[in-house]
Every structure is written in structure tokens, then in C-alpha cells.
Amino acid sequence: MKIIDFHTHFYPEKIAARALQSVAGLPGVTPATDGTAEGLAASMRCCGIEGAVGLSLVNTPVNSRGVNHWAAGWNRVPFFMTGSFHPEEPDPAATVVQAAALGLKGIKVHPEYQRFRFADKRLYPAWEACIEKELFVVTHAGADFSFQPPYRTGPSELAAFHRRFPQLKLVLAHFGSMDMWDAVEQELIGLPVYLDTAFVAGRLAPDRLTAMIRRHGAEWVLFGSDSPWADQRAAIDYLDSLDLTQSEREAIFYRNAARLLQLPV
Questions:
Q1: Which regions in the chain score pLDDT beneath 70?
Q2: pLDDT of 63
Q3: Given this model, what pLDDT does residue 28 score?
Q4: Residues near 49 by Cβ (< 8 Å), separated by ≥ 6?
Q5: For residue 22, what pLDDT is reported?
Q6: pLDDT at residue 29, as a whole number
Q7: 57-70: b or e for each residue (b if 16 or more CB lie within 10 Å)?
């Protein structure tokens, strides 16, 4: 069965070790690779994963150009890279347009690291640019090990954001909102938004996740591991343990991702 991991990270070799060190000691986080492109590629080979979406993130208002050009340099098989923008930069919408011109298929944002909320009207032109350029948007959602509550995003905020921009191809990491499963069921399940499975292994009971997938529709679920912060093999095995049909598995592991990446299905 073909597999695309829709939620991975890797870093330039000169900063990869520092990136891993930044999460040292966080509960539940044990890096599974060395944080480099080669480390991810090696893990993919071992797991039979043929493609991975690399989620790049702009962490300061002045480095959008550098991050997006770096991502574009890695945007080749087996990697499919996203661009990013920073909410505090002068013209996020222009950065979205530039990312599309570089051949990047999506945008990654993180409300905690980038300190913004989806209700911020200053960012509306950026989301409209994503729609115009047909870029998907991947966002961290829910709790984050590196931050303390209250969090800047959760199911109700994300549902409202979807209603404001219903044409946006929205991918919500961590199955809608990490550790907010009751609210995910109430606010997000059934909406036409993608949910990825990054870091849900061991945090969401298999029977409950299976039922949530069935209610939401397998065509709106994406396999994701969150490598290097979680192990790709463990993420695959967890999904394989669910009581899903072969067609549902194929959709989650490959078809849905291929559609978003504009690949042959």
C-alpha cells in the first residue's frame, strides 16, 4: 500500500541538533530521527513510505524569504515542502503568493509559536491568497507540549475559521486539536476539513478514533506521524490496528494526500 506521511519536519544540518535539544525533557517526546533530511529519508525507507510533507515554519517576521527558499530547495521527491509566513511581517499575503511561485503546494502556521489567532482580521488577505493560489493550509491545533494553556487555537475557533473561509483547503494537525477530543467531536467532526493523525497514537483510544474517522469520513483524514517527534513505524502500526476497511486505509495513507498534493491517485 502506498503511504504519504503528511506531517513531518526536518531542519538544516547546522541547526538540527539544536532543534532536537529544544524539546529535550518534554513529556512524551522522544525524537525518532536526528532531525535532518537524511534522517527522515532513512526512516521512510525503513517504513516503506514513499513521500513526506515537510512542514517548514517561519519563526520571525524577517525570515520568510529565507525559509521559503530553503523549503523550495528541498521540494523534490520524496519530499513535498510547505511554505510559511509570519503574522507580524508587513505583507503575509505577498509571501503566500511568493511561496506559490516557488512551487510550494501549501502553507504551515502555528498559532502558539507564531503568537496569533485565526480571528485576526489582519491575516484575512493571506488566507484569501491561499484560496486564490489553491494552497492548502496546515495548522497546529490544540495543546502543545512546549506551551501552557490557555491555547490560542481549539475546535470552536477552528470551526469558526472554516465557516469564515469555507473554500480554504484546511488541514488540522493532531486530529483537530490535541487532547481536546470531546470538543473535536462536538465542533469539527463532519465539517469539510482535513484532520491528520500526527501524534495521536497512545493519546486517543483506537475504538474512539475509529468511530471518529467513520463519522468524519475517511476521505477527510490524512496519515501523519510528526517525525522526528514521533516514530513513523509506530504511527503506521497504530493506524493499522484500527478496524478500518482497505478502502479507508488507502484513502488515509495515500489517496487524500495525493489529491491535496495534486499527484496521480
A1: none
A2: 96
A3: 75
A4: 3, 4, 5, 43, 78, 232, 236
A5: 83
A6: 83
A7: bbeeeeebeebbee
**Torsion over CA of 162, 163, 166 and 168, rounded to 10 degrees?**
-30
pTM, two decimal places: 0.97
Cell numbers at 53, concatenated: 510533507
C-alpha cell at 11: 531542519
At residue 70, the 3 state secondary structure works out as helix
Amino acid at 54: G
Query: Cell 462536538 belongs to which residue?
Result: 186
Query: According to the model, what pLDDT value does residue 264 have?
Result: 86
What is the rounded distance in angstroms from the CA atom of residue 190 to the CA atom of residue 35? 35
pLDDT of residue 23: 80
The dihedral through the CA atoms of 229, 232, 233, 238 has a sign that is positive
Cell numbers at 205, concatenated: 483510544
φ, ψ of residue 53 to 5 degrees: the values are -85, 115
Sign of torsion over alpha carbons 90, 96, 102, 108 = positive
Cell, residue 223: 496519515
Q: CB count, 10 Å around CB of 242?
A: 16
Q: What is the CA radius of gyration of the chain?
A: 17
Q: What is the pLDDT of residue 204?
A: 93
Calculate the alpha carbon distances from 37 to 21, 77, 186, 231 in Å: 17, 12, 38, 15
Bridge partner list, 178: 142
Provide the 3-class DSSP secondary structure of residue 5. strand
User: Cβ-count burial of 263 within 10 angstroms (0-12 exposed, 13-18 middle, 19+ buried)?
Assistant: middle
pLDDT at 248 (0 to 100): 98
